[in-house]
Amino acid sequence: MQQNMDVLIIGGGVAGLTAAIGLIDQGFKVTLIEGSDSLGGRAQSMTDRTTGERVDLGPHVMVTQYRNMLKLLENLGTEKQVVWQRRPHLILVDKPEPVVMRLRSLPAPLHFAPSMLNVPQVSWADLFSNRRVLWQLMRLDEEGILELDEINAEQHLREMGVSERALDWFWRSAAMTIMNAPLELCSAGALLRFIRYLGGRNDYQVGFAGEGLGDLFAPEAARRIRASGGQVLLDTSVAALVTEDGRELRARFCIVATPLESLLSLVPDDWPLRYETFANLDRFKPSPYICTYLWFAGKLTKEPFWTKVWSPDNLNYDFYDLSNIKPSLAGKSSVIACNCMYSLKSDLLTDEEIVSRTQAEVAEYLPAAAQMEIQHARVHRVPMGIPVPAPGTEKARPDTTTPIPGLYLAGDWINTGLPSSMESAARSGWMAAEQVLAKIGRPCALAQPLPKLTGLAWALGRKGGKQG
Ligand SMILES: Cc1cc2nc3c(=O)[nH]c(=O)nc-3n(C[C@H](O)[C@H](O)[C@H](O)COP(=O)(O)OP(=O)(O)OC[C@H]3O[C@@H](n4cnc5c(N)ncnc54)[C@H](O)[C@@H]3O)c2cc1C
After folding, report:
1. Is the CB of 243 under 6 A from ligand 1?
2. What pLDDT, on a 0 to 100 scale, did the predictor assign at position 317?
3. CATH (residue range 2-64+212-282+397-439)
4. 3 has which bridge partners?
5. Which of 65, 243, 291, 310 would be 172's cystine partner, CB 3.0–4.6 Å?
6. Distance 113 CA to ligand 1 centre (A)
7. For residues 467 and 443, what is the distance between their CA atoms, to the nearest angstrom?
8. Is the shortest distance between the CB of 385 and ligand 1 below 6 Å?
């Protein structure tokens, strides 16, 4: 069977669906091919057979600065289904007791400072040991980030004088929770870029999907593709740019919006040798996740989420009580969801062991959890949460355009200027649609610009670098 189409998009996650929406809004007919039996990719949702509730592959967080993701949701009419948390504090679970970090109304990055000064686990000398790296962070421009990309973050922080205690308490926790990899495996450039992104503003809120995360974008995007004369093919894995069942698909443009491993298996073996775009992709390795959901018999807390401070013994880092987030669970017993990032050392644990260790970790913050009955549990083993932002990967992230005429790339891992995330995936999708439009002589701005720093961070950044 041979089919002709305007644009072929391979991959039905946030990136592929955003590119599809960007193009059908401009009158294109799109064929989107998805290898699995459902859309949404890593941000997909499924129905739990025992409870009938929608659950995500793993708990996901958005922030108000997710302008590309929010543009997608606004386009689809689902942005009001995001539940924003207005609590200006973050709970860090540590021994002997949890630390509450309150965001103050001070210019960024000083909004964190009063809380940091009161953390009993970290001395003022440890805090002060961060001064050189914080100064560097605020003045860093894109060139500086790429210069630091080849250096491992742990080594760089030590060279900048950060104390061992500050490394363990703050930087190792930050690496695991936001970069999803141990500090010693992270690129210094990638880590500092993300900390700058988070610490450089004081006006963000954290948001969650009110129900299923994938339900925010996948069903409506698929409906729009079909309504515009295009098609969505599920359970159709593309191999070598020809479908496995032998159908030949012809398209003027092709956007590959798959994770890296799939892209590598799609392209001819000699492309990494012939084209720089595909040359350094072996630097990217997956950060696997284990996501656990526990349905407790009673209510444990009113808090929506909390985080564990780094320890070599941790299984999970971030914890969410969905009964305090999802409107349909309001007033019901606690449903705790959590993420174990870079789960390699825990992969051999059985599901029962993971459930039992997770219950014990929940009880570190909420002691009543230790004795409370767990009525139902799910353990999701995700081979790749995001690619590890290892040294050299910032430079190796390929651009949207490729040397192959008509072939474009999208996905959270390509060069978007953002850490791998739903926001990066959405931005990559808008960027791919922009490139197709530019190619046919109808340039159109779709991708939202990167967030600007505010306050002191903005002032220092202007002096030190090019960002505006
Ligand atoms: C548990 C977990 C928690 C996370 N938490 C957060 C968070 O809090 N905040 C945040 O912003 N991000 C988070 N992320 C990351 C976020 O989910 C991803 O960055 C984003 O969803 C990636 O979207 P994508 O479209 O680039 O890729 P994907 O979602 O991976 O989509 C790619 C699609 O391509 C399909 N595909 C692959 N190969 C082929 C082929 N050969 N033929 C056809 N189809 C193919 C796949 O099946 C998949 O559906 C988390 C991820 C996980 C797993």
Report:
1. no
2. 95
3. 3.50.50.60
4. 249
5. 310
6. 34
7. 25
8. yes
Name which CATH class applies to 286-387. alpha beta
Residue ranges of the alpha helices (H) in 25-123?
67-76, 113-117
Q: Say yes or no: CB of residue 15 within 6 Å of ligand 1.
A: yes
Q: Hey, whose CA ends up nearest to atom 13 of ligand 1?
A: 421
Which structure tokens are listed for 399? Answer: 């651009």
How far, in Å, from the CA of 431 to the mean position of ligand 1? 17
Give residue 111's pLDDT band: very low, low, confident or very high (50, 70, 90).
Answer: low
**Cβ–ligand 1 contact at 216 (below 6 Å):** no
Whether residue 38 has its Cβ less than 6 Å from ligand 1? no
Atom of ligand 1 nearest to the CA of 384: 53
pLDDT digit string, tens, across residues 189-238: 999 988 887 766 666 789 999 999 999 999 999 999 999 999 999 987 77
Same fold, 2-64+212-282+397-439 and 286-387: no
Q: Is 33 in the pocket of ligand 1 (CB under 6 A)?
A: yes
* Residue-level pLDDT at 193: 87
Q: Where does residue 52 fall: left (phi above 0), alpha (psi -120 to 50 degrees), or beta otherwise?
A: left
Ligand 1 near 461 CB (within 6 A): no
What does DSSP say about strands 286-296 and 374-387: parallel, antiparallel, or unpaired?
Answer: antiparallel
Q: How far is the CA of 14 from the centre of ligand 1 (A)?
A: 7
Cβ(31)–Cβ(201) under 8 Å? no
Is the distance from the beta carbon of residue 83 to the nearest atom of ligand 1 less than 6 Å?
A: no
pLDDT digits (tens, 9 = 90+) for 321-357: 999 999 999 999 999 999 999 998 888 999 999 999 9
Give the single-character DSSP code of 306.
Answer: E
Structure tokens at 191: 């880590």
- Which residues are paired to 232 by β-bridges? 32
Parse the chain into domains and list their residue ranges.
2-64+212-282+397-439, 102-202, 286-387
Handedness of CA 349, 350, 351, 356 (dihedral sign): negative
pLDDT at 122: 79
Closest C-alpha to ligand 1, atom 43 = 35
- The residue assigned the tokens 């299923």 is 212
